[in-house]
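Quarterly update, task 2.4: flavin-adenine dinucleotide-bound model.
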Amino acid sequence: MPDYGHPLEFGAFITPSNQPPETPVLLAELVEGLGYDLVTFQDHPYQPAFHDTWTLLSWVAARTERIHLSANVHNLQLRRPALLARAAASLDLLSGGRLELGIGAGGFPEAVSALEEAIPIIRGIWDAAERRPLRLAGRYHSVDGAKRGPAPAHDIPLWIGALKPRMLRLIGRLGDGWLPSYGYMQPGEYPKGNAAIDAAAREAGRDPREIRRLVNIGGRFSAAGGGFLDGPPAQWGEQLAELALEQGTSVFILASDDPATLQRFAEEVAPAVRVEVERERGRAGTSTGAVRSSAALAKRATGIDYDALPASLARVAVEPGDARHARLAANYLRGGSPGLVIEARDVADVQAALGFVGAHPDVPFGVRSAGHGISGRSTNHGGIVLDLRRLNAIEVIDEQRRLVRVGPGARWLDVARALEPHGWAISSGDYGGVGVGGLATAGGIGWMAREHGLTIDHVVAAELILADGSLVRTSAEEDPELFWGIRGAGANFGVVTAFELVADEVGQVGWAQLAFDASDTAGFLERWGAAIEAAPRILSGEVILGGRRGGTRVAQFMGVVDSDDPDVVLRTLQPLAEVAPLVDQSVVITSYPAVMSNVSGAPHSATGEPHARSALLHHLTPEFGRWAEELLDAGDSYFFQIRAVGGAVSDVAPEATAYAGRRANFSLAAMAGPRSRIDERWADAAPMFDGMYLSFDTTGGEEAARMAFPPAHLERLRALKRRVDPGNLFRDNTNIAP
Ligand SMILES: Cc1cc2nc3c(=O)[nH]c(=O)nc-3n(C[C@H](O)[C@H](O)[C@H](O)COP(=O)(O)OP(=O)(O)OC[C@H]3O[C@@H](n4cnc5c(N)ncnc54)[C@H](O)[C@@H]3O)c2cc1C
């Protein structure tokens, strides 16, 4: 019988006794402390002396930190599969991916058929990437249009507790693990069971190694060498190592409620088994790599050489067949179905990932910090995504200089919260969920832009990994040309793994939300624009317009006045409030993090392709107002947003950073539906515009680069690109072709 090469794990099988109620919980805490990998409980909800196992699992999950949990096993006659799947996904999410699912069918004649129907229901509920509702009509279990999801935090394996031949064949076809109790088997039955599972797996086109072999064991520590698991710990160790090496068992679950036995097993038996198995595997050259299921393999994208992925990335690589993929596929505004997501944990992972990407020049490649890119190019279909969300550290490195080091995966809400206790803030954008990486390499037009400038104006140094894998630091003194380029066109030159930024002193601020009757749209825009230009710099904000309702169009203004003095706030807002009749208003003094707390923590779930256009303008002229009114009346944009810039943004010379649009007082962004004539309208209005902000435009590629950068900038950027990324590794963005 083969050794399947699975990692060895040790578990405990604890009675879910409720007398007294804390008993199994204390034992679970004990075994976690002893280093066990798994704690399991039988599930007999009709037993008054036992806890309900789901409730107990939830409680134990909350009281422990590391150990995995499972029922041993759930009876699917009593736990309906759709509900069980949802409960399991919830507990897996709450416990940080620590739940495993042990199931059995109960001892009735049709158990195999019932289990065969239940398994696709469980997996169907977890398949959150599938948009169609789940419909499966069976004899024992049916669902008719069930909503899918949530996707669990990890691929919850289905371990099946069974002994009879038909059941073993089912495990071979559909299971992820076999979980029998060794004591209930006749001599020779265990190897026979494994062989039956292997044969059924092969027949179904599966690799037998896809099925984990677990076993419940019980025994007695005694002085004299008796029978199986009846002797001193050394004898136990030898017997279990033999089971691992000759019969492929990799998870040993000790049934005991005795703390001394549990401790002795953890301290004397488990290490001995590990040493022996490791030694023997080393000698025999047993392959111990992860085995992907044939179903998961079938979902792989063409063009990606998965086998060439560096071993160091195996634990952070997520493929379409993985449960986690559904949470990582989409962006905030664009749907996606990447063939591989690499969730980098550190600089070394980024370097290894870029090496792998370099070997795939024809595969789409997205760099994602928080996935709020409006063009959505940080995800893709069938390509590779380098996900940086885990690189999200925020640390103050120099209190005197207000110098902060921030990872690209942090969100601006996190940054706002981390800086508030110091009395600081960095003007970033209007939405707390936007990532540091995408915004701080492009511009950053935020709630305090007119007073404190763009986010990139606060960047004083950055560390990035270039296309050749080298880690470089750039600042005004260290490769100043690269430092110039990454402040406005950063996506083209490397992956920024850390930014150093200088924060501003910011206390409580005035937060205004004013709704205007903007039915006279052209007139409103002209007056609003003039009021913004005349306002002191402590006022920044944006106005959003959409369609008309019954002839009325409402314009929603949101803005910050950087002052905690209510009189100053109101005085600053008054001229703005007079540009058109107000239909609603709210002004409060609040914290900057509160203004940025407009974030949903849910995973991105966008579908389809966004379409947005951007333009920078000096003034909102009558001509612009008429053009905008016509465009909105025609329904060519459902979200038409004008942000105030100018002020401190314009204090920086256009040639000082790659971000060139310094003379503009306004930044326009328009989201459009699929049948919109937005591109034609943009072409008509081109003479009114002075470039665009690449973060708000979905055009992408070289065409977008020509709109975002004036010729002299573009030439300089191209020279830089030729130096640091001649092969155009960083290509799926506003691309500067080398
Ligand atoms: C709801 C919403 C509100 C917004 N509000 C504002 C706003 O007020 N002001 C503003 O200026 N912008 C705003 N934006 C635009 C936003 O700043 C940009 O889209 C930004 O790129 C998003 O950053 P991200 O890291 O979340 O995006 P991602 O989608 O992760 O990345 C976007 C692009 O940036 C590049 N990139 C990402 N990380 C890195 C890195 N570490 N190194 C190098 N390149 C990288 C990649 O090319 C990627 O395609 C908003 C976007 C949304 C969706």
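Highlight for this quarter: The pocket of flavin-adenine dinucleotide is lined by residues 331-333, 366-374, 377-378, 388, 408, 429-431, 434-435, 437-439, 441-446, 490-491, 495-496, 695, 733 (CB under 6 Å).
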